[in-house]
Amino acid sequence: MSIPSFGLGTFRLQGQTVIDSVRNGLEVGYRAIDTAQIYDNEADVGKALAGSGVARGDIFLTTKIWIDNLSRGKLIPSLRESLAKLGTDHVDLTLIHWPSPNGAVPLAESLEALLEAREQGLTRQIGVSNFPIALLQQAIDIAGKDNIATNQVEISPYLQNRKLAAFAREQGVHLTSYMTLAYGKVLKDPVLAAIAAAHGATTAQVALAWALQQGYAVIPSSTKRENLASNLAAQKLVLSEAELAQIATLDRNERQADPEGLSPAWD
Prior knowledge:
single chain; 267 residues; alpha/beta; TIM Barrel; eight-stranded parallel sheet; 10 helices
């Protein structure tokens, strides 16, 4: 099973805001939705899905296990709680949201629990998130690369994460890019703006098309229907090798997500 290349993120969206975003996203053509236990919006995402009229089988649904629930005794019960909130009997992808801080819960324990959840039919695929090279290697050693559907990590024109990307490519592990627009910071970038103007596109579309052409999946979010539709159109934008080379020069190792106490040793 492959990971959809384009999905709708729901980080920081709650209540009616996330309900409207997911509903509008589904109406304009999104079929992959990304949430997480710590977002505290799974129930509202579930409401949006239930009221959308889109068949569950047509939606690729991802959630992520929070660090408090990574132990063998907590992971599957917490996933069952997530399923109840989402109003479904399974998700399509379940990720370890962040590595257990200081290895408090052994990675093998969490991955074995995830594999058991998959065996029970609670999730179709499993993967990881925010895993640098060393931890991704550990995950591969424990579960096998074929069992790691994706590593969801921050990648944007300002944080191109080249070492990790090269390692993942060598290992055959797929990457999902989050914060591809760097919290909107790339939207005013003059290089991206010039490329966008040449294509009659938006800077957001250029940044998303860049990530897609690297082979990453993307999960941008928006509260505005017009932006949701515009972002989705990035799939039709093809950048030239010269334009990709220009974007390569924008990398400045500028990380947006680096929470104290959670972040591993980045590459």
